[in-house]
Specification:
5-stranded antiparallel β-sheet, about 950 residues, mainly beta, about 5% helix
């Protein structure tokens, strides 16, 4: 008894782990925790785990009952739901038996079976009827079986999918399911049936001996009736058929409804060999509509196919984490990733598992495997093997080998591994072993009251009993005391409670169903494989009503979807809730304030960077105002998408106050909270100066004082000058006598101007600039006085010496000053650097005497020197009144270097002369100067 009680302590114990292995597969074939006993398909569930979750209070096995003779042998596994056992015979009889006594409750015929003599080869005797293990759909309370039926009138065989109500055997379905173009006599429906998305799934192989032509096939027939879908093998020459889907374990189905089947070797003419891969001797993944989704090709496919070492001698086994285990005749076991089958990827791991009767001759594994508590149990022709499965590394290692005659497909129930002995390929098993799951040593050996017929016979287990098809009867053994077991806890996964970036409060309810809950655990992780766990905050006790339980999680990753469920364990076993999900909050957006650009008196462009931290931004604004209290806001240019990288955001502000300091920062809010950037500031530009041109004063023939008022706009001026000239195009400028400091209000400015021409009208205006811009006054005009003359009085008429009588009085007029004028506007320099400047002296003058100076009109740069106004050439002149002369000037070296570059220079010509009183007068003109083109020769 001690050996049994060691296995009854919570999720870490073997039995509790068995329950978890059963529940993860989902689907209609899974036993309901705390509900009626169930073994509704081959090896218990759609994944073919072969593990019974109910027998948690094991007792030494004892014979319970043997049914009456049911009229024909049983080649399949008994099915159990509630208080009944359901079996089918090769005589096409379906039976419902009392699970406690073995008494027949009802029986129904699925049709006339095919006589053995009508089948050209095979080993099913005396008739061929229901051979593959049926399937029960608890949702529809219907048992489905494939029957091979005989039409004596036409001498034809057919296969029908039959449906019978569990309550009374009412016939509710009869669908023809022979593949198109097939010969039903050459097909044997040996594999167990399964369910996928409302369809019954099964396969076809050939009769023992592979006589006749056939192609392996898989069928998906709707439970509600209607035309079935087919996948059929298409051989590649020289193969003409084969690829049987014949392993007794039949198809496995995952939680998504994907179907996994193993095929056998191709058939080909004697003396030939196959060489082209065609999905024979493989593991295939199909949809419930029979579309091929993926495949696994053994590396040894070529030799295995040519030497009858087919993979399909055993059915696929679904392991946790979307991994498949597959063994076959070639003595190897493979671990295959379901998610990579679509690309035909190689196995995750493979290693020798079985040793044939003659090692290396391919008599490896037959039937179906079992999986529980991290251990894979594999039927081998030299004794069952136990493999320790490393779910993380995806490898396995051998734990033990059972008795050499324990060759049948194993199951796990009541803390033991149950295996039927048998002579390989000959049936006749007479012993039922109960093996220690840790060592493989038999703890119990029961002698069957009748030998088995099926040479791949496998027991079933539910409700504390093990059931074996013994010839034409069923035998039951009591292995657990269910009277002392309360139902397992009923678990309802609830919605998550408060969730933050790194924490979550999980909520669910547990009905202890009268048993003391010893373990209550939330399992969670980023996938439905979970990987992490946290205890319930408190245990729900031992009542019979649902109790709310909570769990507190910490250390989570922000902005991540987590899967979770709840498991609760009492004396009856483990109950598990459905998978649910929650999502942690993302981190608050990360905000970095930027700068202000394009600042004017009333506008500015603000920038920042915002990292949404993987979640949609709900609000993004720029806050701004005259202080760090802000007071105004403007939305960002756009709301950012849910990404995890900084992105630029901007806003354009208008209506600001000129010459003011503004504070600003960026604010962003997402599902995970809000953040703001640092306080930054900028100053708007002041307004441009207000300039008002005044009148000229101190006016002479050659000079004047220009006056104006300027309001600087509150900041110091960068520039203040008067533009003046003989037209409103001006052309000359003179700086104000001083630059005004910052301030508000009109302030007077002035500038003296010299070198004006007498008797000439001039236009002028005030111009002032600060960092905010430039202001200009209205144009005003002033005229210099005309030239004056000196009057020299001669003596009047008087008496004098003879000869001097009668002289008249007169006035002599003399110009006060003389001024030459330039008669050309374009100058050309000769190769020797000389230029000629044409000057003229107006008539009525005595003569024009003065000097001429040529300068650059603007600052120019020579070499690395700073830009400057350069003197180019100079000379003097003396011109008679009314005459025109050309004054020869020689350019300076610097001037000649400019001209030689081919540049067209703007030069200023300044003429200077003194009047009779010694005052200097000048006039200016703008000319162009360039190099004279060389003369062609």
């Amino acid at each position: 008894m001690t050996a049994f009680t060691l296995l009854s302590h919570g999720r870490v114990a073997v039995l509790a782990t068995l329950a978890a292995c059963l529940l993860w597969t989902g689907g209609p074939l899974t036993a309901n925790a705390g509900a009626e006993a169930a073994w509704t398909t081959y090896h218990h569930d759609a994944a073919r785990s072969g593990a019974d979750p109910d027998a948690t209070n094991p007792v030494p096995p004892s014979f319970a009952w043997q049914s009456v003779d049911l009229g024909a042998p049983l080649w399949n596994q008994p099915l159990i739901l509630g208080s009944r056992v359901y079996v089918a015979t090769v005589g096409n009889e379906i039976y419902a038996l009392d699970a406690a006594t073995g008494a027949v409750i009802w029986s129904k015929s699925a049709g006339v079976p095919v006589p053995e003599a009508e089948v050209t080869c095979g080993n099913v005797k005396p008739t061929v009827g229901v051979v593959g293990t049926p399937v029960i759909d608890p949702a529809t309370q219907t048992l489905y079986a494939v029957a091979e039926v005989w039409d004596a009138a036409t001498k034809e065989a057919h296969h029908l999918l039959r449906g019978f109500k569990l309550s009374d055997g009412e016939d509710v379905l009869s669908t023809p399911v022979d593949p198109p173009g097939s010969n039903p006599k050459t097909l044997l429906e040996r594999p167990a049936l399964n369910l996928s998305q409302g369809k019954v799934i099964f396969g076809y192989g050939g009769n023992a001996g592979d006589c006749g032509l056939y192609n392996g096939a898989v069928v998906a027939a709707p439970e509600a009736g209607g035309a079935p879908s087919f996948w059929s093998y298409h051989p590649a020459a020289p193969a003409y058929g084969g690829a049987a889907v014949w392993g007794p374990g039949g198809p496995a189905v995952d939680e998504e409804g994907h179907i996994y089947i193993a095929t056998g070797n191709p058939n080909f003419p004697e003396g030939k060999a196959v060489s082209t891969y065609d999905y024979s001797d493989s593991l295939l993944e199909l949809s419930s509509s029979m579309a091929l989704l993926g495949n696994f090709e053994p590396p040894s496919w070529l030799s295995d196919s040519n030497e009858d070492r087919d993979l399909g001698s055993s059915g696929p086994e679904l392991l946790p984490g979307h991994v498949l285990f597959q063994a076959g005749k070639n003595e190897l076991g493979y671990l295959i990733d379901e998610t990579t089958m679509g690309s035909g990827a190689p196995a995750l791991y493979s290693h020798k598992v079985c040793k044939g009767i003659k090692e290396g001759e391919g008599e490896g594994s037959f039937g179906g495997d079992a999986y529980a508590a991290g251990t894979i149990y594999v039927p081998c022709t030299d004794g069952v093997r136990a493999l320790s499965y490393d779910q993380v590394a995806h490898t396995f290692t051998e734990l033990w080998q059972g008795p050499t005659d324990a060759t049948g497909p194993p199951i796990v129930s009541g803390g033991l591994v149950w295996v039927i002995s048998g002579k390989f390929l000959h049936g006749g098993g007479t012993k039922l072993y109960g093996l220690d799951p840790a060592t493989g040593v038999p703890r119990y050996t029961e002698t069957l009251p009748s030998p088995t017929i099926d040479h791949f016979a496998s027991p079933s287990a539910a409700g504390g009993r093990v059931f074996v098809a013994t010839g034409s009867s069923v035998t039951a053994y009591q292995i657990a005391d269910l009277a002392r077991n309360p139902p397992t806890p009923s678990v309802v996964t609830g919605a998550p409670g408060a969730t933050t970036q790194t924490t979550a409060s999980l909520q669910s309810s547990v009905n202890p169903n009268g048993g003391e809950v010893s373990n209550c655990t939330f399992f969670y992780g980023m996938t439905s494989a979970y990987g992490e766990q946290a205890p319930c905050d408190s245990l729900p006790g031992a009542g019979t009503s649902p109790v709310a339980v909570t769990g507190s999680l910490a250390g989570l990753t922000p902005n991540t979807t987590y899967h979770f469920n709840l498991t609760a364990v009492n004396e009856g076993g483990e109950g598990e809730g459905a998978d649910a999900t929650f999502k942690t909050l993302p981190n608050a957006p990360a905000v970095v304030s930027g700068s202000a650009t394009a600042v004017t008196q009333t506008t500015a462009s603000l920038s920042a960077t915002v990292n949404p931290m993987g979640a949609e931004i709900e609000e993004c604004v720029f806050e701004y105002g005259p202080t760090s209290a802000y007071g105004a806001s403007a939305p960002c240019s756009s709301l950012l998408a849910s990404e995890e990288a900084p992105s630029a955001v901007t806003v354009a502000l208008a209506g600001l106050q000129a010459h003011a300091v503004y504070h600003f920062r960026t604010f962003a809010r997402g599902p995970g909270g809000s953040s703001q950037g640092s306080d930054e500031s900028f100053a708007t530009l002041p307004r441009a100066p207000v300039a008002v041109t005044g009148t000229a004063s101190s006016l002479t023939q050659g000079s004047a004082t220009l006056n104006a008022t300027v309001d600087p706009g509150g900041v110091a001026l960068d520039d203040c000058h008067f533009d003046y000239g003989s037209t409103v195009a001006y052309g000359s400028a003179v700086p104000c006598t001083m630059l005004l400091a910052g301030g508000l209000g009109a302030q007077p400015v002035s500038a003296p101007v010299t070198g004006l021409s007498a008797g000439t009208s001039y236009f002028f205006r005030i111009a002032a600039a600060n960092v905010g811009g430039a202001g200009y006054g209205e144009a005003q005009s002033v005229s210099t006085p005309a030239p004056t003359t000196l009057l020299v009085e001669a003596p009047g008429p008087q008496q004098g010496p003879p000869g001097k009588q009668g002289l008249l009085t007169f006035q002599e007029q003399r110009p006060r000053f003389v001024q030459a004028s330039i008669t050309t506007r374009a100058l050309r320099a000769a190769p020797d650097g000389r230029i000629g400047l044409a000057l003229s002296c107006p008539g009525g003058q005595s003569r024009c005497v003065g000097s001429v100076l040529l300068r650059t009109a603007v600052a120019v740069r020579l070499g690395k020197a700073r830009p400057a106004v350069l003197s180019l050439a100079g000379g003097s002149f003396a011109i008679a009144a009314g005459q025109r002369v050309t004054v020869s000037l020689r350019l300076s070296a610097r001037a000649w270097s400019l001209v030689k570059r081919g540049r067209l220079l703007r030069v200023r010509a300044i003429l200077s002369a003194r009047d009779a009183e010694g005052s200097l007068h000048s006039s200016q003109a703008l000319l162009t100067l360039q190099r004279r083109a060389p003369t062609s020769r």
